[in-house]
Design brief:
76% helix
Length: 106
């Protein structure tokens, strides 16, 4: 008799467990999904911040290079290099001839 009572109690306990197993499993699964979702979007947010910082660095470098390009390609600087380093001279206007044979009048 005692065994039968214990078996009956065990069946009741198992039926209670079966009754609540689905909601408990669902709650655990939803918790795991929420944590995974949160972790994924945290990582995306960090990556976005890093990319924005990188974009700022690239834009800053571009501005520096643009400024340097303006300085390096200035006509005054190019003329100076041509005269000092390449020993070039401005031509004498009287020695300039054109394909049509006429010199430009000044």
């Amino acid at each position: 008799m005692i065994v039968r009572e214990k078996v009956a109690e065990l069946r009741d306990d198992i039926s209670v467990i079966r009754k609540y197993i689905l909601p408990i499993a669902t709650s655990i699964l939803l918790g795991v999904v929420a944590v995974a979702y949160n972790t994924y979007f945290d990582n995306l947010e960090k990556e976005i911040v890093q990319l924005r910082e990188q974009e700022k660095r690239v834009q800053s470098k571009y501005a520096e290079l643009k400024k340097e390009d303006g300085i390096l390609s200035a006509p005054k600087r190019i003329i100076e290099i041509a005269i000092k380093k390449l020993n070039m001279k401005f031509p004498d206007p009287s020695r300039i001839s054109f394909l049509n044979g006429k010199a430009k009048k000044e």
